[in-house]
Amino acid sequence: MTDTRIDPPVVAGEREMLRAWLDWHRETLAVKCQGLTEEQLRLRSVPPSSMSLLGLVRHMADVERAWFRRRLNGEDLRGIYYSDDYPDGEFDNVDTASAEEAFATWQAEIEHARAAEEACADLDAMTKTPTRDGVHYSLRWIMCHMIEEYARHNGHADLLRERIDGATGE
């Protein structure tokens, strides 16, 4: 694995710091997937889990979309890989999924997310669409949550990658 990540600054304003850490974690997932075949990206962890690196990429595309486009911007969009019929579709339906398509979709959702975040005047901007339980969240909360979401799944990615070819890293 070639690590091309740029370390976040040690001193920065709050928004710059949140952006840098979120981008670092986004890139971490990409690094964990680097150099693998489609078949390797599809390899599952351990039963009964259906988690795979490809599933994580698809999941994070849906998470980026949900928080930045659907909630923050109020766009009327459905899930990309999951649905009411397949609530874990991003993980379960990878056997014939295209890695190229998944990575392109994930990167497109990241670009949409960056644009949505940049369009907000400040971190106190609130979501236009509430969650199912009626809660609106601030952009600050979303940024922190996304860092947490990636950090947790990057831990999964570490274990998956080590299982595939023994590669480990930060």
From TrEMBL:
Pfam family, one: MST
Superkingdom per UniProt: Bacteria
InterPro entries: DinB/YfiT-like, MST-like
Protein name: DinB family protein
Organism the protein comes from: Microbispora hainanensis
